[in-house]
Structures
1.
Amino acid sequence: MAQATTTDWSPHSWRATEALQQPTYPDEEELEEALDYVSGLPPLVTSWEVENLKEELGRAARGERFLLQGGECAESFADCRAEVITSRLKILMQMSLVLTYGLNTRIVRVGRFAGQYAKPRSSDTETRDGTTLPSYRGDIINGAEFSAETRRPDPNRLGEAYASSSLTLNLVRALAEGGFADLRHPEYWDLDFMQHSPLAEEYHAIVDAIEDTLGFLETVTNKKLDSLEGVSFYTSHEALLLPYEEALSRSVPHKEGIYNLGTHLPWVGKRTNQPDKAHVEYARGLQNPVGLKVGPDMTPSRLKTLVRTLDPDDEPGKLTLISRLGVDKVGDQLPQLVRAVQDIGHTVLWISDPMHGNTKKTEDGTKTRHFDDILGELEQAFDVHAAENSHLGGVHFELTGENVTECIGGARGLSEADLGKAYESHVDPRLNYEQSLEMAFSIVRKYRQLAG
Ligand code: PEP
Ligand code: CO
C-alpha cells in the first residue's frame, strides 16, 4: 500500500493514487498556470502557529483543553465581508466564553474558515428541467448558479480562494489580537438580536460574573491583566481539492518536513477517507495536525489502519478523529471505534461532529437538521467516551453568526414551516446564532452532569 513509509511521501505523491471528488478542468494548461501562481504566493499561516496548535490539540487529547471547531459548511466569495466574518467570530467567542466558564478548561478555537471553499458532492452532475451541468463543488471550483458558464470548473478561482482566505484571515487576526477580543469587554461580541433572546439572561449572568472576577483580580494584584486582551483563532478546512493543497504545501527554514501553510488544521472528509486513496496519502506526510472524519461506514479495522497511517509515531496532537455517526448510530458504533484506537495503543483527540450524520430532507426536499438530534448525538458521544474510559475532547459544528432558519428546534422552537424565512445555505444547514449559543450551554450541562 502507498502509505507504508513516510520516506516515499511528497506533497505530490497522492498523484500516483486515485483521487476522489476532484473536478475535471476543461483546460489543463490554464490549471497549471493557476497552480503556479498560487505556489508562488506567501503562506497564509506559519509553521510556529501550526506547531502551537498541535501542542494545544495534544493537551486536548489529555483532557487539559477543549476544542471548539466551528464555522460554515462552505464559505462563499460573496460572504467575504466584514459583517459576516465579524458575526461568525462573535458567536465563536461567545460559545467559547460559555465553555471556558462552564467547563473550567481552556478552549482551543478553530474556525471552519479562511479556506473552506471546496465541497464533496454525491453526484458529479446535476439535472434540472432536462439540463445536466457539473455539480456545484464550492467557490474554489465553480459557482452555485445553475448555468453552463458558472458551473464550469474555473482555475482562476484558485487564486480567488487564496485571496478570500487571506482577506478573511487578515480581519480575524486583527480582531482576535486586540480590543475586540478583550475579555474585559465581552459586550463587543453581542449580536443585535441578543437582547431579544431567551438565552440572554443566562449568558449575561456569566459575562457579569467574569467581569466581577477580573475586576477583583486587577484590583488586588494592582496589575492590568494584559494577556486578556487577545485570543487565538486557528483555521481549518477540508483538504479536498488536492492540487490547491499541494500548491500551499511548503518546507520552511530550520524545520524538517512539509507544512500545509494554507491552513492550520486540514482535515480529510468522510467521502475521501479511504486508506489507499489520494486524500489520506496527501495528509499522512504533513507536519500539520490533521483531522479525519469518521462516519457510519467506518470499521474498527479500517480505523486502525488509518490511525497508523496518519499518526505513525503516535505524536501528541497529530490526529483528531471527528466522529459524525448520527443520533441513531452513535451509541452502537462509537464504542467499538474508540476501543479500536485503544487496542493499538494510540492517543488521539476524539471530537464529535453531531451535524453531518443528522441531515434530513423535509417533504419539499429542503435539507435540514433537528436541534434535538444534534444534541442527542453529542450527549451520547460524551456518554460513550465516559463509559469507555476515554473522553470527548471537543466539538465540531456548522454554524453561522447570522439569524438564519436552516436547522429545526432550539429554544425559539423553529419549525419546518419557518425554514423558508431565512434559508441561505447552498450546502448544509447551519445552526443559527441562538441555536449555537444554546448548544454551548447544553455542552456545559452535559459535562457537569458527567463530572458529577
Ligand atoms: C463537511 O464537513 O462539510 C462534510 C462534508 O462532512 P463529512 O465529510 O463528514 O460528510
Ligand atoms: Co457540511
2.
Amino acid sequence: MKICVIGTGYVGLVGAAVFAEFGHNVIGVDNNAKKIELIKKGKMPIYEPGLEELVAKNVKNGKLEFTTDFDRAVKKSEVIFVCVGTPSNQSGAADLSYVWSVAKSIAKSMNSYKVVVIKSTVPVGTNEEVERIILANVAKGIKFDMVSCPEFLREGYSIYDSFNADRVVIGGKTQKAIDIIKKIYAKLDCPFIECDLRSAEMIKYAANAFLATKISFINEIAQICERAGSDVVKVAEGMGYDKRIGKAFLKAGLGYGGSCFPKDVEALYRTSTDQAYDFRLLRGVMDVNEAQRTNFISKVKRVLGGSVGGKTIGCLGLAFKENTDDVRKSVSIDVVRLLRGEGAKVKVFDPIAMESSKKELGEVGIQYCREPQEVFEGVEALCILTEWEEFKAYDYAKWGKLMTKKIVFDGRNLLDPKSMEKLGFKYYGVGRGSNGWSLASTGAIFDQKHHQ
Ligand code: UGA
C-alpha cells in the first residue's frame, strides 16, 4: 500500500516507521525543513527507544522516505494519515488550526481516490468538518473517504505499543475505506473495532479520560492512606488483582502530565460543556491532579520545618515520565518551579531531559548537574519526581553521605521505604502512611481541623 504520513511528531514519525516495517511504501511529510533534514541524516528529533534503528532500517531498504514536498507525497499515495498536533487553546479546547490547513492542502493536491485518515486526537465532529473542507476544495470528480483511526501508543514505549496494540479503532462511513485501513494493519494480531467517525473520535478521549480518572482516583486514595496510616502501594496491589479493576494506572504519585492527558481531559470537559452537559467527574479528576503537586510541596515544607526558603533541595527527574525527554506539561518541572518559587535553591538531574528542561526552566535558581551523585551534594532533602527505572539502582548508601540531611521525598513511590530507612534516610512516599509516618504524626491533620 502507498501511504503518506503528514506530521513527524511522536505519532507521525513512529507511525511512518511502523507502516514501513509492515511492508508498505511510506512517505513522511513535514513543513519543518530543519526537522526533515535531521531525520534524513538519521537523527531523530525526539528521544524514543528503538525509533532511530527502525527508521534507518526502513530508509535503507527503500520502504521509507521523508520530504517537505507535500504535493508530491499526496499525489503518490493511496492513503493519507494526518498526524499533526492538536494543542490546547487558551480556553482548554483543542486548537485545530493545523488540521484545517492540512485538510485544505490535501484537497488541492488530490488527483485520484484517496482515503484520508485522521490519527491526531480530535474532538467529535472534526472528521466530518475535514470532509466538508476537502469537498469544498477538491477538483470535481475526485472521490475520497474519511477514516478516523486514533492512536493509543505511549511515549517511551511507542515502538513496542505499535507492534503490540490492544486494538485498532477504525471509524468510517464506507466499508471500502475501512477495509483498506484493515489491510494496512493486517500484520497486527488484535481486535479491530469498526464504527462510525464520531464514535471513533470519542473512543480516544474516553480512553485517555478514563486512564486519567484511574490516576486521580488512586491519588485520592493515597491522600486518605496518609491520614489513615495505610500504604497505597499495597492497596493498589490488592485492588489490581481484581480483573475488573486491573493493575495498570494505579500508581499514586505527583499526578499525570505530558502532552496528552492534561490536554485531552480538558478538551473532553469542554466538549461536554459545549453539549450543555457538566461532566462533574472530570472536573474532579482535573482538580485532584492539580492538588497532587501542591500537596507534595506542603509535605516537603512541613517536614523541613515550615519552609524551603534558602534551603538547597536535590531533584531527580524532570521528564513528564520515564523513557522520554519530553517535558511538556511535566509535573516534575512544575514541582521544581514551585520549590524555586518558595525560595529554595534546586539542584536537578534527568538522564535524558536536561536540555529540554533548560528551555522550560531557564538557569535562575537551578543548578543542572552533570552526574546524578552531584544532586546529593550538600542538599537538605532529595525529591524523586520522575519514575526513571535507573533511579532505583543509585548508590543511596554512598551518595546519601553527601547530603546535609538524609531525607527523601519520593514523589513516584519508586524506592523501597524499608531499605531507605535501613540506610538511615527519613523516607516520605506518596500515600505510604503505614511506613513509620502519617500526616497525623506531622500535625497536618490537626492543622486542617484547625482551619475548618
Ligand atoms: C497516554 C496514553 O497512555 C496513551 O494510550 C495515549 O495514546 C497517549 O496518552 C496519547 O493520547 O497520545 P503518554 O502521555 O505517553 O500516553 O503517557 P502515560 O504513560 O499514559 O503517562 C501519562 C502520565 O500519567 C505521566 O505523567 C505518568 O507519570 C502518569 N501516570 C501514569 C501516573 O501518575 N500513574 C500511573 O499509574 C500511570
3.
Amino acid sequence: MQTRAEHWERLNGRFDLLIIGGGITGAGVARDAARRGLRVALVEAKDLAHGTSSRSSKLVHGGLRYLEQMALGLVFESVNERRVLQRIAPHLVRPLGFLFPVFDGASNPLWKINAGLFVYDALSLFRSPKLARRLNRAGVLAEEPMLRAQGLHGAPLYWDCATDDARLTLETALDAAAHGAVIATGARVTGLLRDAKGTVSGARVCDVRSGDTRDIDASVVVSATGPYTDALRRAAYGQTTTPMLRPTKGVHIVFDALRLPVRHAVVLRHPVDGRVLFAIPWGPQTYVGTTDTDYEGDADHVAADAADVDYILDATNHYFPGRDLTVQDVVSTWAGLRPLIAPPPSDGTLSASAVSREHQLTVEPDGLVTIAGGKLTTYRRMAAEVVEAAIGVWEDRGGDARRLRPAGTAEEPLPGGEQWPGEAGVETFIDATAAISGLPRDVAAELVRTYGGRATEVASLALSDPTAGTRLHPDRPEILAMVDWAVREELAHEVADVLIRRTQVFYRAKDQGLHAVNAVSARMGALLGWTEAEREASAEAYRAEVRLHRDGWAQPQEA
Ligand code: FAD
C-alpha cells in the first residue's frame, strides 16, 4: 500500500534528509538518497509533479537549440542521460523522430543544421535512439504531408525521446518509497526549524487537508521547490534576499490529432520572432508549444491566456496552412514556469529564451541545501550532486557515510520498468493484459502505456470487482480501476491528482474530464472515507482547475 495516510503516519521522528518539493528534482533526490540508505522524508505541498514537472514539453532530449547557444556540456550530459532514462524507464521514455524543416530565409541554412545534427549524434557517442538522416523537400513532404511546401528546402530527421513527465516524477518517488522514504503529499512547509546555534534542523509542515501542523526534525534540509525557490528563501532569510530565479512561463496547446496530424515532432521557428516551437504527436492528440515569456505573477495560478494561444495558433497555421485551426480546435492547454537561474546583473538584457537552463546548487552557512534550475532530462545527475552535497552537511552533523551504499540509480529500473517486455514485446503484452482481465484491447493498451510492467496488476483489479472496468468517459480508455490504483498505490488524494497527473484525462478528453468528476470523486470518497462535503470540495476544486486553464482564452466547458 502507498496511500497518503500511510505515509503521513510515518512522518515522525528524526530524518537524515528532509526534502521540500515533490517535482522531478525532489523525487530524484529522494530516490538517490533512499537507495543509498539515508533516512529520507519528502514533503510536497500539493501533489507529486503538481508544479513544473507535469507541465513541460515532455521531452527527454539533448536540446538541439542548446547546441546553437554552444552549451556543449549541457547537451553532452543530456543526451547521455537520455540513454540512462531509456534504460531505467523504457515504458516512459520512448524514441521520437524529430523533423527540423528549413525554409527560404532561414537564419541557419540546411547544411549547417545537418552539420549540427552530426555533432548532436556525436555527443551521444552515436548512441542516439536512431542516427539522423537528411531528407530533401520531397522526402519531408512524404513524411509530413500537411507541412507547408512553399519555400521548403529539406529537413534532417533526428531522434530524441518523449515521456510522461508526471509519471516519471511519480515513479521516481515511488521507487524512493520502496527504499524506505516517506513521501508526504498535501504537506506544505510553512517555516524552517533552527537549533540554538541557528543551523537549520527541520521544518514545520502543515497538513493541507486537516490544517494540523507538525515539526519534522532532520539533519539536512533540501529545498527542491522549483519556481517556488525564492518564496522559500524569502521565508527563511527575509524579503530582501537576492532572487535566485528568473522564472519564465511556457504554454502548450492540445489539438485532436485528426485536426493536426503529425507523424514526427516537427520543429517550427515562429514566423514572427523566430523562436523554436514543437508540434508533437501524442497518440490521438497533438500538442504544440511552447511560449517563453517572463512571469512575475502567482506561481499557483499560472495559466494560458489569449495572447499565448494566439501566438501558438499563428505558428501552427503558418506551417500547416491547410488546417485553419482556431481556438475552437483547442482541446486543452497547460502552462508551467521554468525555474531558470537568474543571470548575473551584467546579463540583464538577455531575452527569456536565452536564459541558461543549467542548474544551481547552494549550501548556505546554516546548512540549507537549495537546488534550482536544470531540466527534467538531467534530473538524475542533478539529484546525485545534491545528495553528495547533503551528505557533506550530514557528516558535519555526525552522520557516518561508511554505512551508505551506492545508489545505483542509473542501472535499477523504476517500478513500471521492471518486467517490461521491450518495444518488440509490447503488442503481445497488451494482448495478454486484455486476455487475463477480460478488458477491451484499447483499455489494456492504455494500462500498458501508463503502468508499464505493472499493467497486469491494475488490470487484475477488474477481475475481483466488475465495476472497476467502467470507463471514466464513453470515448476514453481510462477505467475506474485506475482511480483505485491511484488512491491505493500512488498517493492520490484529490480528484485533480487522478484526472490530471495519474491519468491524462484533463488534457485529452474533449470535456476535460468534467463528465467523470462525480464518478471519480464518489469512488475516491468511498476509498478515503470522505464526507459528502469533502467529496464535493474535491470535485469542485477540479472544476476550478479546468476553468483556470480555459478562462483566459475560451468559454468554460459545460459539465
Ligand atoms: P517543480 O516540478 O515545480 O517542483 C517543485 C515542487 O515544490 C512543486 O510541486 C511545489 O508544489 C513544491 N513546493 C513549493 N513550495 C513548497 C513548500 N513550501 N512546501 C512543500 N512543497 C513545496 N525539461 C526537459 O528536460 N524537457 C522538456 O521538454 C522540458 N520542457 C519544458 C517546458 C516548459 C514549458 C517548462 C516550464 C519547463 C520545461 N522543462 C523541460 C524543464 C523541466 O520541466 C523543469 O526543469 C523541472 O520540471 C523542474 O522540476 P522541479 O522539481 O525543480 O520543480
